[in-house]
Amino acid sequence: MIAKLTGKIDTLGDEWAIIDVAGVGYLVFCSSRTLGAMNAGGAVSILIETHVREDHIHLYGFANVAERDWFRLLTTVQGVGAKVGLGILSSLTSEDLVQAIASGDKAAITRANGVGPKLAVRILTELKDKVSGLALGQAVLSSGATDAGAGASFAPGDNAVRAEIADAVSALVNLGYSPSDALGAVSRAASEMGEDVRVESLIRIGLSALGTQDTSSSSSSRRG
Q1: What digits encode the pLDDT tens for the residues 118-155?
Q2: Under DSSP, is residue 143 helix (H, G, I), strand (E, B) or coil?
């Protein structure tokens, strides 16, 4: 089983790259987002998901852990094969997917090639309860992440931290805040707390930050 390849880019295609590792060329299928960061002849180190079938062995490549884990999660949905999974990852970032699934945004999901309205609904329905454990914490679990839009990825094995963050975001959403606002507030709170992450503290600090944000917005409206 191949889990990672490190070498140089031999050839780039629309949906694939050939990676030269010690003279052996591996054909790897990737999202357009991952391919866009590659340069022919350049060095690359890429995570690999290996799919073995009776008639073929396909390698799928990912720039980071978050993209690979989203691919794994998306392809658990009936009707989402590897090609459609890569199409979704080409169209939507990890943060986009979190927000779309949390808010039930079918239009965002259908922007991806190969995803029609019925499949989009199935994705939203089947992943709504799964997404929190995978992705609600991914914006804060690398050092120095201070904003939900920072694009930081979570470290594998931080399941307890992910659960605390997911629960805090869920609580704020249930109080009426939007998923994106709740995620941003909890992300900033978690980055300030370091390793000592507790759901009660995340909710308290998140509420304080969101209350300040609401107050500022109201003041701006009155001045306007």
Answers
A1: 999 999 999 887 775 554 445 444 433 333 333 333 33
A2: coil
pLDDT digits (tens, 9 = 90+) for 54-72: 888 999 999 998 899 999 9
Q: Is the dihedral of CA 125, 107, 49, 167 positive or negative?
A: negative
Task: Measure the CA–CA gap between 106 and 99, rounded to whole angstroms.
Answer: 11
Q: Is 221 helix (H, G, I), strand (E, B) or coil?
A: helix
Q: CA dihedral in degrees (90, 95, 101, 102; nearest 10)?
A: -170
Distances, alpha carbon 14 to alpha carbons 10, 32, 196, in Å: 14, 8, 44
3-state secondary structure of 114: coil
All structural domains of the chain, each given as residue ranges with its CATH number in brackets, are 4-63 (2.40.50.140), 65-130 (1.10.150.20), 136-215 (no CATH)
* Confidence category of residue 41, pLDDT binned at 50, 70, 90: very high
| DSSP codes of every residue in 66-91 | HHHHHHHHHTTSTT--HHHHHHHHHH
Q: How far is CA 50 from CA 10, 29, 82, 92, 107, in A?
A: 20, 10, 11, 22, 31
Interstrand relation of 24-30 and 43-52 (parallel, antiparallel or unpaired) = unpaired
> Averaged over 91-100, what is the pLDDT?
85
Q: What is the pTM of this model?
A: 0.65
In single-letter form, the type of residue at position 113 comes to: N
